[in-house]
Structure formats: C-alpha cells, structure tokens
Amino acid sequence: MGTDSLIPLKDQKGKQSFFAEVVNTEKQLWALIHSKGLLHSETQDLYQKVRSSYVKVILNEQETEQPQDIEYSLWKLHYKHIDEFRKRIRQSSANGESKKSTMPQNVANTQNSNDKYLEGFKLFLLEATEFYQDLIKKIRRCNGLPEEPLFYRKSGIYGSVLPTKMHDCQFSCHRFFVCLGDLARYRERYEKPDVQSRNWSVAATYYLEATMIWPDSGNPQNQLAVLATYVGDEFLALYHCVRSLAVKEPFPDAWKNLIVLFEENRLSNLQSLSKEAHFDFLKPSESFEMIQSQSSDGSSNCSISSSTEEVHSVETDLWSLIIRMISFFFIKSRYLFQKTLFLYHLNFYYDTLL
Predict the structure, then answer these.
(1) Can you spell out the DSSP letters for 128-175?
(2) Of 86, 134, 189, 275, which one has the fewest beta carbons inside 10 Å?
(3) How far apart are CA 149 and CA 84, in angstroms?
(4) Number of C-beta neighbours around residue 89 at 10 A
(5) What is the pLDDT of residues 203-225, one digit of tens each?
(6) Is 31 exposed, middle or buried (0-12, 13-18, 19+ CB in 10 A)?
(7) Locate the DNA/RNA-binding domain: which residues (predicted)?
(8) Is the pTM value of this prediction over 0.90?
(9) SS3 of 219, please?
(10) How far apart are the first and last CA of the chain?
(11) Is 37 in a helix, a strand, or coil?
C-alpha cells in the first residue's frame, strides 16, 4: 500500500496526532536541508515522506467531509524548496562572479555547482507539476467525479454527489490549479533565460481554470495580474487587480499590489504624445487621414514588424496615460480619506478632553 493511499483517520485525536507527526517530520526535513543540502538522497526521501503524509490528510478530509486548510501547508512545503533552490542558484552565481579573477579551476567548480542546482530546480518543478496534476485527479476520484478537466462545466454528471463534497472538491482543486500556475511561471522563468522567448500561456491557462472552478477567489486573478506585468500590459494588470478585489474572497495583498502598480506607473517616464499628435476634435477624419499618409510615406523603409512595434508603443503609452490618470484620482482620494479620518479622530480626542 502506498504512503498516500486512503487510510481512515476518523478519530479527531488520531488526526491531530498524525498531523503533529507530519509537522515534526517537516522540521527534520528543513534541518536536513541545511546540513546535507537540497539534492542529498536523504533529503529527497524525507521530502517525499512529508509530501505523501500531507496527501493522506487531504484525501481523508475529503472522505470525511471535514476539510482543513492543509492545502496551504502542502504548498508551503513546495514553496520553501523553491525559495531555497533560488537562494542556492543566486549564491552560486555570485560566487562565480567573484571568482572570475581567480584560478580557472575554481571558476569551473562554481559553474558546475550552479548548473547542478539549476538542473535540480527544473527537475523539482517538473515533478511538483506532475504531483499536483495527479493530486487533482485523486481528489476528483475520491469524490466520485470524473478525472478529466472541466468536469464542473458538464451538467448531470454529478447529481449523486453531495453539495458539500462538491463545494470542498472545487475549492481544493481551484487552489491546486493556482499552484500549477505558479509552478508553470517559475519553470518558464528558469528554463528560458531570454525574456523575449518566454510564453506565459500555460500559467495563464491554469489560473483561468482556477477562476472558472472557484469564481469567488481573488487569488488566481491576482496571479493573472502578475503575468500581465511580465508582458508590460499595465491596463490588463489593473483589470485583474480590481477583479482580485471585487470578489467574495479578495486576495489579501490585492490593495497593496494595486498601489504598487499605480506608484510604478506614476514614477515611470511616459513618452509625450502631445508633440506628435495632430488631432482636431472638430475634424477627426482629417486627422486620421493625415496619420495614414504619414505612415504610407515611410512604408518603403518600414517592415511589418517595425510598424507593429510603433502601433504597440502608441497603444501602450495611451493605456499608461489612462492608468496614470486613474491612479492620480485613486491615490488622491485615498489620501484625502485618510486625512479626513485622521482629523475626525483628532476632533473626537479633543472633544473627549473637553
């Protein structure tokens, strides 16, 4: 019997005892990581043991209809590994830069260490992706649902499933799809050093899947906003930031991320469009014809790609101006609200003294 197979944990005291054992084992894992390293075989074995134990708890909670917030602990287990891998890769890169002036052998050893951690990180992300894909299937199977994606869109196939079980299953699956999106995002960043060659469609697909399974969650919308910043689409980032707030379960850091987006836009240097614009609001068609003639005059010297870049630049600048205008009113109103609130409390304080 596998370590992640379903074993009844119906006794509440037994569940707490088992979970405490998992937590203690995880503490041993972090101690082992710092003493023997991420890639050591003992570390890998203990990591597999902790992960399987979390799966056992999750599947049993699905079975007993008493879901706990174990999914977050499971993701923390993976994210700590991700963070540790990134630290080791950065350290190896920094050591390589500092040893360039030393013996070639030292430089080669440092490069080998960096490559080893980088390949180990890629393998970890791949295995974690397969793990979460398999976990989603297990949870669906545990709840008597089909394993294929998009099961929630098909009508009449889960009439016998209790609403509470369907609710818990959808919530868990939506969180796991967010995890899959994050893993796809990390894989794209570390497998393709060239920024221009990165394709965020896989991560976006996972996040969109999460929004469809659980529309009330702001988490996947926030992650889509992060992807939008990667491609420089500030307006799309603004849209998803707002969406991450305008739900029943807003993302905790959504307000902070929205302020950061506005502040970065406010501090960025936007190309002035007023110098190049020749627009008569009384004769808009003439202005459009003039723009077309200017484009056709230089058409022999321009390729399709270069003209597309120019159009994209203008569109980006326009959206950036719109976002800057929105951010001005938002930050200004937020400042006035805080100032009004402060004066209100100040007056209340003086009134109580009098």
Answers:
(1) HHHHHHHHHHHHHHHTT--SSTTGGGSTTSSTTS-HHHHHHHHHHHHH
(2) 275
(3) 32
(4) 19
(5) 999 999 999 999 999 999 999 99
(6) exposed
(7) 203-335
(8) no
(9) helix
(10) 75
(11) coil
